[in-house]
Amino acid sequence: MKRPFGQHFLFDPNILKKIIRCGGVTREDTVVEIGPGLGTLTKFLSFYAKKVIAVELDKRLLEKLEGILLPCPNVEIIQADALKFPYDSIDGKFKVVANIPYYITTPLLFRLLEFREKISSMTLLMQKEVAKRITATCKDKEYGVLSISAQLYTKPELKFTVSRKAFLPPPEVDSAVVHFEVSPSSRFAVRDEELLLRIVRTAFSQRRKTIMNSLRAFEGVKDALQKAGLDPKLRPENLSIEDFIRLADAISFTEK
């Protein structure tokens, strides 16, 4: 059975329990699950958490879900689009634990980070390729905009991989579980976060060029590179988050 929204169902109880352990879920926690599907992970979460809020978009699954989760009084099922749901409407802080549909992984991550003051951690099962991009450092070929954007506000760790054979129907790729410790504000001292992300996106949109050439649109980039102590011949993937921050701060001074 495959959902029209791109979800693949995971039924292996050992993997589901391992995901919950990675999330550090306790009886003190409210947990938000996105895309509960047929409620297998939801039911396990209800055994460990104080409350589970399951956000499901597919109306056809709601009736089945309500029946399956009837014995779980601490589960609340909400029919909503996870990309539009107002997470600040949830009382107190919460954790997110979910097997998320592949096609919304990146936009959902950015949506959740908008509410980072409410979220203490996220434990997400996602496409392995995306997991490697999120957790990559400047030494890795997968390093890029997604790596830096996620690591500005979270400390992501790839916990374990899950074979495609564990799902019904099996997807075309393997998956991985990533645990994010979430920070309510930037984990780094940044003068202008918006400028930093604009520089990062611009640099990686032309990642084969040198950092000097890819950022020519920014006024005073040559002086800024010198001030930041960076070789203008480096390519974007050679710069750490700290390097980009020094460069953004230097450009910020130059632009002012």
Percentage beta strand: 15-25%
Strand elements, count: 9
Output the radius of gyration. Answer: 20 Å
The largest sheet has its strands arranged as 4-3-2-5-6-9-7
Chain-averaged pLDDT: 93
Could you name the ranges where pLDDT drops below 50 across 5 or more consecutive residues? 1-5
Q: Name the helix and strand elements from N-terminus to C-terminus, one letter apiece.
A: EHEHEHEEHEHHEEEHHHH
CATH homologous superfamily assignment of the largest domain: Vaccinia Virus protein VP39
Question: How does this structure look, described?
Answer:
The structure is a single chain. The chain has 256 residues and is of the alpha/beta class. The protein has 2 domains: 9-182, Rossmann fold (3-Layer(aba) Sandwich); 193-255, rRNA adenine dimethylase, C-terminal domain (Helicase, Ruva Protein, domain 3, Orthogonal Bundle), CATH 1.10.8. It is 37% helix and 20% strand. The strands form 2 sheets. The protein has a 7-stranded mixed beta sheet with strand order 4-3-2-5-6-9-7, sandwiched between helices. It has a two-stranded antiparallel ribbon with strand order 1-8. β2 (30-34), α2 and β3 form a beta-alpha-beta unit. α1 packs across α2 (40-48), α7 (193-205) crosses α10 and α9 packs across α10. The chain is elongated and about 65 Å long. The model is unreliable at 1-5 (pLDDT under 50).
Describe the structure using short key phrases.
alpha/beta, 256 residues, Rossmann fold, single chain, 37% helix, 2 domains, Helicase, Ruva Protein, domain 3, two-stranded antiparallel sheet
